[in-house]
Fold these 2 entries.
Entry 1:
Amino acid sequence: MIDSHCHLNHNSFYANPQKYIEEAMAKGVEAFLVIGYDLESSRRAYALAQRFENVYAAVGIHPTDIKKRGPADLGQIEAMLSDKKVIGYGEIGLDYYWDKSEEDQKEQKEYFIEQIKIANEHQKPIIVHTREAAYDTFKILSDNPPQYGGIMHCYSGSAEMVGDYVDLGLYISLGGPVTFLNAKTPKEVAKITPLNRLLVETDSPYLSPHPLRGKTNSPANLPLILEEIARLRGVEAKIIDEATTANFRRLFRLEKQ
Ligand code: NI
């Protein structure tokens, strides 16, 4: 299985990433996509991808990190995209939970569009973060289609919208919330998402799955998420493991190793 979204670049892990990589590999996690959210974390993702064979990087600026960006940040992000271990662009998107003012939201939208454009120019799939911004996120993605596809990361939208995102070439990635006892919508999404568009992620150190909810998450917890999806769909975990691994490799055009 492959963790399609983790933050080994975060301070929780960065002092000793090897420990967390080995712990996860012992649980069957074969590869990791480390996601940047600002310039520094993107550089760290890049560095980890150079250091570990089964670590890949995505670089980009998260909507809530836009405000602290420097004028040269996007150029420096863009410079990393030519590396073959930098396989995705993100995480980018919209987050209206933290930014409520119209002015901030306008800036987020402009920046989202600009970063989709860069991803398209460099032929990279995008990693989309969206929170309390479902309408605008879908509108921007429809008007500015990601030409190389992408991922709706830790998908928290409705089951009804899954087909619309799939039609835009996006994959649906599920994380810890699908295991939460009171999570109705993610469980429904886990059942109806086409098997060839499903991915799994930990989003560690955030969003620990049940029964570890509230603790620091790590990539070693990926099987808890995968097993819950299998249970909900009434299939063996192996089926979800093989499908999500193949989906990841197809989306990022990686050779089978
Ligand atoms: Ni994330």
Note: Residues 2-251 form a domain with the TIM Barrel fold (CATH 3.20.20.140).
Entry 2:
Amino acid sequence: MISTLAWTPDGIRFINQTKLPLEETYVLATTYEQVADVIVSMVVRGAPAIGVSAAYGVALGALRSNAASAQDFAPEFEKICARLAGTRPTAVNLFWAIDRMKRVFADLLASGSAMARVQDTLLAEAHAMYDEDIAACKTMGAFGGALLPQSGGVLTHCNAGALATCGYGTALGVIRSAVEQGKQIHVFADETRPFLQGARLTAWELMADGIPTTVICDNMAASLMQAGRIQAVVVGADRIAANGDFANKIGTYNVAILAKEHGIPFYCAAPWSTIDTATATGEGIPIEERSPVEVTHHGGKQLTPHGVGICNPAFDVTPAKYVTAIITERGVLRAPYTESLKQMEMVAV
Ligand code: MRU
């Protein structure tokens, strides 16, 4: 399995996703500040991977601290959490992971723990999140794999694979599982301008698994659907609101509209840590605006005239009405999502 991120005695080792697919290189983050930089620069990206990276970042901050006790460490802990929370605003998994670390730290503080215990406990919590993430991907993969056709083309957008999680993937986990179930799936990967997660990352990891994959430019999906070459769409999510609206990589909304027009099922696969019931609808989801350079340049080469206006929102919101089902590790949810999400949340508690 691809090692997206791994805890080592020296720090956290990340596969450098900005260099894939041409170079397989790794970056070692030895401080929490470096973890924050790695998230901002998209060396690591994808909502679940961002969340677990931040949890390890908090643990790393504790390990590097000279504090003697939870009490001493408390102001530094707040600073570490704030720095990591300030990296990418859309993926709710980031805030979910930091909140979970905060709850663990609150108990350590209340019990007057020594620093060695703080360090061990925070690291153990990050390890637990890592293991849970892979398990969630495998479970949602099995649920979602059963929904895909026995054979046919499946379109995906961006990269919601092993590289976006701790392993196996959400949308690509669904595809992997369908293939493991013996289905004949041909993946069409949207290249996903401007950062090219589809062309670079989805293509790379599916080829490593021997899953037949064709990269298409983002503007080719409609034509392929019209030609009957796509039987299902499956994508990931960065944040799912209480009514089922969800944010994912810019361009996902286009694909959802196209799928509806062509009568093609459109699935969203995500772990429960991506569901944000505190945000009522997609309108409340903050959308990250990234540097114009991602649009104006490619591979260091300028593509656009000097001074032209540039817009670079990293995500868009797909309204729930376009979503055939939301696939989670707790089960497959159908509309109306306000009810099904609420029910599933209560069942799991
Ligand atoms: O900007 P990115 O590459 O972090 O965006 C990633 C996506 O949009 C993914 O589809 C989403 O995070 C789900 S990853 C399992």
Note: The domain at 141-348 is CATH 3.40.50.10470 (Rossmann fold).
